[in-house]
Write a structure and sequence with these properties.
With 76 residues, this protein is α+β, with helices and mostly antiparallel strands. Helices cover 30% and strands 8% of the residues. The mean pLDDT is 90. Zinc ion binds next to loops.
Length: 76
């Protein structure tokens, strides 16, 4: 099957980056582990979508740590 696009690298399925199960190319969510997955990459793995929640938690942690440093050492 040739879709005329070359972004599947010839793969017919992709591998979930979380549980390493083969899943359909069109799947947005892994049927096995229910994690969101992206498009297939050159290696046949599905892209791991950016997890904005963990970015947000990281920023929050850095902000809290910075505040602690300010509170503990700089405030006076
Ligand atoms: Zn999975």
């Amino acid at each position: 099957m040739n879709t005329g696009r070359d972004d599947n690298f010839g793969y017919l399925s992709k591998k979930c980056p979380e549980c390493l199960t083969y899943i359909p190319l069109a799947a947005d969510i892994c049927p096995s582990c229910k994690q969101r997955v992206g498009k297939v990459t050159r290696t046949g793995m599905a892209k791991r979508p950016v997890n904005w929640n963990s970015y947000f938690m990281l920023i929050l942690a850095v902000a809290a740590f910075s505040f602690y440093i300010w509170w503990a050492f700089v405030k006076d």
